[in-house]
Recover the amino acids of this structure.
């Protein structure tokens, strides 16, 4: 499974935020809108914003989570942690 993950292949379950399962059902492809949200969150974090501030900024800008809910600090941490790995 780690090998598949390293190759950005689908490992089961929901695709990580910022990605979607490609038509082949095996590989993951970038989800443009979600990638923009991740980039913005990373920019804010690099600028010194707290996870809570990032969540408020994204929510205020209409950038909600995939499920339509507002951003919470733990959700931001998970999304930014996935970018780092």
């Amino acid at each position: 499974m780690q090998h598949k993950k390293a190759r950005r292949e689908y490992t089961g379950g929901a695709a990580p935020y910022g990605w979607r399962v490609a038509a082949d059902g095996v590989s993951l492809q970038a989800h443009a809108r979600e990638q923009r949200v991740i980039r913005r969150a990373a920019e804010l974090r690099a600028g010194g914003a707290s996870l809570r501030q990032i969540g408020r900024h994204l929510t205020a800008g209409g950038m909600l989570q995939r499920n339509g809910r507002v951003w919470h600090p733990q959700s931001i941490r998970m999304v930014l942690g996935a970018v780092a790995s």
About this structure: The mean pLDDT is 89. Residues 32-46 form the longest helix (15 residues).
